[in-house]
Design brief:
Elements (H helix, E strand, L loop, with lengths): L2 E8 L6 E8 L4 E3 L6 H13 L9 E3 L5 H4 L2 H8 L2 E4 L11 H18 L4 H18 L7 E2 L5 E3 L4 E6 L8 E5 L5 E4 L23 H12 L6 E3 L8 H26 L11 H9 L5 H19 L3 E6 L2 E6 L2
Helix pairs in contact: 4-5, 6-7, 7-9, 8-9
């Protein structure tokens, strides 16, 4: 009989744990992996052994999205067991096959993002180094990956899991729907206590609009009729509709806060037009430092983009920086 085991893998983030799921089956499968640490690997190995399985027998690794805490160990585990790694192409983790070369490109992408957000150069240099170091230390190189797409089905002995593409927290985020009992693995698309925000991710993918895409994804999974949610962090829960409403309410509240901040401080002057993302983020979240600067401006960017899409805010590009102001 197919059995699903939640594995709480320790991660060096404030949330402390990521939920990975081991599915004991004739095709043993792991959903998400945690970051690349010895402690994380031993936790997964021990949890699988407690279910009378072996890490080296894993045949599939399904990644719900391409963030370090969900895919960092994928390459290392696959090297041990030869498992096939599945990930949505919009969140491709293939770059870690040659991390040194690809990190050069990522470093420049981050530097450009931070500069456009209005972060001072000295702080930008610190942040770029911090983010790149985290990628290098927390992510193991991989060989190959297999792309998954919306509607794709993974078959198991007693049920199957259908891929539901839910962009928003990342462009390639997916949920996995058990079509037998309606259980839904959600990654970070929806969590029981945390409000997931879209993170910085420059894409050319049609239709991806960060916060707006996340809201559309919440509405989509709300129509699935599922009852039991197995999230990427925190406890399992069942009141999906109530949780979606709370997240939507939080998003609306944050958008109003950002709009109010711009209305009070984002009026054009003779010297500059409006506010940068960094200026708005520090007023929205207070003083930011370290990696929290990255998370703060990423979240703020999502709300600014949504307000711009609604026609309430105008974005101006001046001297390689973005400025936002209320649209009259």
């Amino acid at each position: 009989m197919t059995k699903i085991t939640r594995i709480q893998v320790p991660i060096p983030y404030p949330v402390r744990w990521v939920n990975c799921y081991y599915i004991a089956d004739s095709v043993p499968t792991l959903i998400d992996t945690g970051v690349n640490t010895e402690e994380g690997l031993e936790t997964i190995k021990s949890a699988i052994a407690s279910q009378h399985g072996r890490l080296r027998d894993i045949r599939r690794i399904i990644i719900t999205h391409g963030h370090l805490d969900h895919m960092g160990l994928a390459g290392r585990i696959a090297a041990i067991c030869g498992a096939e790694i599945f990930v949505h192409p919009w969140d491709s983790i293939q770059w870690v096959a040659n991390p040194d070369e690809k990190l050069i490109r990522k470093r420049e992408n981050y530097r450009d993002f931070f500069a456009k957000a209005g972060i001072p150069k000295d702080l930008t240099d610190q942040l770029v180094q911090l983010v790149v170091t985290r990628h290098r230390s927390m992510c193991s190189p991989i060989g190959t990956e297999t792309p998954i797409k919306d509607g794709m089905v993974f078959e198991f002995d007693d049920f199957d899991l259908q891929v539901i593409h839910t962009p928003g927290h990342s462009a390639g985020s997916v949920c996995l729907l058990n079509r037998v009992d309606g259980t839904l693995f959600t990654g970070d698309t929806i969590l029981p206590e945390i409000y997931p925000n879209p993170a910085m991710q420059k894409t050319g993918f049609a239709g991806y609009r960060s916060l707006s895409s996340h809201q559309e994804s919440l509405e989509r999974i709300g129509r699935l009729g599922t009852k039991t949610i197995l999230p990427g962090h925190g406890r399992r829960f069942e009141d999906l509709e109530k949780r979606i409403l709370r997240i939507q309410s939080q998003h609306a509240k944050r958008c109003k806060q950002v709009l109010r901040i711009l209305s009070q401080n984002g009026k054009p002057s003779n010297k500059q037009s409006g506010m940068t993302q960094f200026m708005a983020a520090t007023q929205l979240f207070g003083s930011l430092s370290g990696i929290d600067v990255f998370y703060g401006i990423s979240a703020t960017e999502g709300h600014l983009d949504a307000l711009e899409e609604q026609g309430l805010v105008r974005r101006l590009n001046e001297e390689s920086q973005y400025f936002y102001e209320i649209r009259n």
